[in-house]
Amino acid sequence: xxxxxxxxxxxxxxxxxxxxxxxxxxxxxxxxxxxxxxxxxxxxxxxxxxxxxxxxxxxxxxxxxxxxxxxxxxxxxxxxxxxxxxxxxxxxxxxxxxxxxxxxxxxxxxxxxxxxxxxxxxxxxxxxxxxxxxxxxxxxxxxxxxxxxxxxxxxxxxxxxxxxxxxxxxxxxxxxxxxxxxxxxxxxxxxxxxxxxxxxxxxxxxxxxxxxxxxxxxxxxxxxxxxxxxxxxxxxxxxxxxxxxxxxxxxxxxxxxxxxxxxxxxxx
Length: 268
What we know:
This protein is an alpha/beta fold. Helices cover 36% and strands 15% of the residues. Strands 2-1-3-8-7-4-5-6 form an 8-stranded parallel β-sheet, with helices on both faces. It has helices at residues 14-28, 52-69, 85-94, 124-128, 134-139, 159-168, 178-187, 220-233, 256-264; strands at residues 2-5, 34-35, 74-78, 98-103, 149-152, 171-173, 192-198, 235-242. The model has no long low-confidence stretch (mean pLDDT 97). It has one domain (2-264): Arginase, Chain A.
C-alpha cells in the first residue's frame, strides 16, 4: 500500500504542508494506491491537543482503511509526523520483532501534558508507547516499547523528551552511524523494520524544504547509505515521508534518491 495522508493539523501549519503533500502527490502519481480523507477545517475542543477533533477523525479513517485493506507493507506519504499512529501500530501488531527507525531532527516524544506547543506532530512516539491521549490510544492496533525505537539524526530535544529517552535508555545516533545502528538492531534481535523519514533530519545546508529545519543533521549521501544497508540486512515492512514543504518538482530534485528508495525498500 502506498498511502497519501495529507494531515496538517498535527503541526498546525496548513498551507506549507498541503503544498508539500500536493507536490509529492504529483511526483508519485499513479503509484499512490490509497488516500486518507482529511478535514478542511478544525473544531475547538476541551482536549489540550491542537485541532484534536480533526486529528481523531483522520486517525479513525486511517484505522478503518487499514482494517479493510489488510496491507502487508505500507509507505505513508505525509503530512505531519502525527500520521504515524495507525501505520506503525498496525505493522507492530502484524510483525514480531519490529524495530522503529526514526530519522528526524526531533524526538516527537512529548505527551499532551509535557508539550509546550500542544501540536500532535511532537507526540506520536509517546502516543505509540501508550503514554498519550486515551481516546487515540483506543484506536491504536498495538503499543510499542521504547526499546524498539532507534533515533537517527535527532538533535533538537525538549527537556521532558530528553528525560524520557534517558530513563528508557533509547538508542540515539545523531550522525546515523551505521555500525552502531546494526549492532544495536542485532543485539535487540530486531528482524523487521519500520522507517520513519522526516525530511528535517537532513542538514538544511543540503536540503532546506522542510517544515522545521534545524542546524546540523545528516547528508543525503549518508541517509541513502543507511537506508540501503538496512534494506539489505532486514525486512522493511513500512516506510514514511513527512513534513516536506517543497512547492515544485524542482524543489524535490535533490531528494529524489530518497523518495525512490523509500518505495524500493518495500519491494520483495
